[in-house]
Specification:
The chain contains three helices and 18 strands. It has 277 residues and is mainly β. The longest helix has 13 residues.
Length: 277
């Protein structure tokens, strides 16, 4: 595998994570025995993961199938743009129910080691959302929130918990926010695959220790020479409702205009012709 492009929406979105061939080649594929990492190796593995950036500007089309336990499923459709500028991973996401009418949700997300930001279109202009609003659904009827897509925990304090298995060998890390964010958030428990150092599962844990949401990586596909994540499911662990994200089209290796990610601009981005999978 020449490269692995995994897309987090929670972990999936906001941080398409690129794992290069050198990392894959250093993985010990033949060893089945689970061995705990030393403090130095655990820190290095996390640093490599958290510092990865997307391989190119991109635009992708997606659908989200919302499946409640006690009512009928509903389909949402959208488009996501992504780019790296300096030390910031930039994301613009548009979403609407059933793919009909105006965009009900329009967000700009900035993921940076120096501080993350979320902007929402409201009344014809973008407004910045405070961190305590990041976990509200993007639009009514969804579980996915700006927090799930932004994945700010890539830059939180990471504590290595040890090895384990989720269908494959993984290493578990527990993440805690610092600064102002720590007042509004609980913790994150993330499982990174031993082989490719990419996310397999992300659990959102409340301040009282309960699991709130679980994000699980699904299948992947090679598009234009890069591996992208095709599916990811997000489950509300209290209600057992679930959102299944499916990417269905893409245009990679773009050069997107910076205006797409500029909160001072209210202009809707032009959607390129996307190649369907």
């Amino acid at each position: 595998m020449s490269g692995f492009f995994s897309f987090w929406v929670g972990a999936v979105f906001a941080a398409l994570i690129f794992v290069n061939a050198a990392q894959a080649q250093t993985a010990r594929r033949a060893e089945d025995r689970l061995v705990s990492l030393s403090a130095g190796d655990a820190a290095q593995r996390w640093a490599e993961f958290s510092s990865n950036k997307i391989a190119c500007d991109y635009c992708m089309g997606f659908s989200i199938i919302h499946t409640p336990r006690k009512s009928e499923e509903r389909i949402f459709k959208g488009v996501i743009f992504g780019a790296v500028r300096g030390d910031s991973v930039l994301t613009r996401i548009l979403v609407r129910p059933d793919g009909q009418g105006d965009w009900s949700g329009d967000f700009i997300l900035v993921n940076s080691p120096s501080g993350s930001k979320v902007f929402r279109m409201k009344g014809g202009a973008f407004e910045e959302l405070p961190p305590d609003k990041w976990e509200k659904p993007m639009i009514d009827g969804l579980i996915y929130s700006p927090f799930d897509i932004l994945s700010p925990y890539r830059h939180w304090r990471a504590e290595y918990e040890g090895p384990g298995r989720i269908g494959q060998a993984v290493h578990f890390y527990r993440l805690r926010a610092g600064g102002a964010e720590s007042k509004e958030t609980g913790e994150i428990r993330i499982a990174l695959s031993r082989e490719f150092n990419s996310p397999i599962r992300v659990e959102r844990i409340s301040k009282d220790g309960r699991s709130q949401r679980t994000l699980s990586l699904g299948s992947v596909k090679k598009v234009d020479g890069l591996w992208i994540m095709l599916e990811a499911s997000l489950r509300d662990d209290a209600s057992r409702d679930k959102d299944l994200l499916k990417f269905n089209s893409a245009k990679l290796r773009l050069k997107l205009p910076d205006e797409i990610f500029d909160a001072a601009s209210a202009k809707l981005p032009e959607i390129p012709i996307l190649e369907r999978f």
